[in-house]
Amino acid sequence: MKSVALFGGSFDPPHIGHIRVVEALQKLPFIDTIIVMPTYLNPFKSSFAAPAELRVKWLKEIFAPYKKVHVSSFEANMQRKVPTIESVRYLAKKYDKIYLVIGADNLHSLTKWTEYEHLKEMVTFIVATRNNIEVDKEYITLKVDENIASSELRKDMQVAKLPQKCADTIQKYYKEHNANKN
Question: What whole-number distance in Å separates Cα of residue 105 and Cα of residue 103?
């Protein structure tokens, strides 16, 4: 039985917290593949700072050396907001078991996600710890000790919190495009 962990998000910008999530996922023996899937535009947001194709490029560069990790441009290629259920249905054609990785900060809005009832029937949730938010025992908890938010980095770009592999490129992009205004 092939299993996959879907780790989606805006990754605007990608940061070391995202790397810590992937590293923690790699240690889980029941996951065969990890798919990092950046959104074109998060269904709960109205804009992005860096275009999807650039975020995909950065993520491919960052995760190239990681075994079991694949960066998917499925949502980015759609050029629209893509609900998670659509990506899960896409992956269900290839994988027998789907784990959906979310940050603990998303728990409060989970029931507002498109077709939430179907989604929870199709996936097993893995919740990455964040900001000391308590994770209910019904979820698999992924201990991650990085409390970084992309929204905060856009306001105050700290190179030390960016993936070393392309930190300078990311910082330069956000500085040149006034992306900190978002």
Answer: 5
Other beta carbons within 10 Å of 38: 29
The continuous run of DSSP H or E covering 174 comes out as helix 167-176
Evaluate whether 40 touches 80 at the Cβ level (below 8 Å). Answer: yes
Which residue is associated with the tokens 């700290």? 158
What is 3-148's CATH number, 3.30.470.30, 3.40.50.620, 1.10.10.10, 1.20.140.10?
A: 3.40.50.620
Measuring CA to CA, which residue among 2, 3, 1, 88 is closest to residue 37?
88
Whole-model pTM over 0.85: yes
**Both tokens of residue 101?**
């990785």
Measured CA to CA, the distance from residue 138 to residue 134 in angstroms comes to 12
3-state class (DSSP) for residue 17: helix
Instruction: Name the residue with tokens 């710890």.
Output: 129
Distance, CA of 28 to CA of 96 (rounded, Å): 17
CA distance 39 to 26: 22
Which residues, given as ranges, of the chain have pLDDT below 50? 181-182
pLDDT at 95: 97
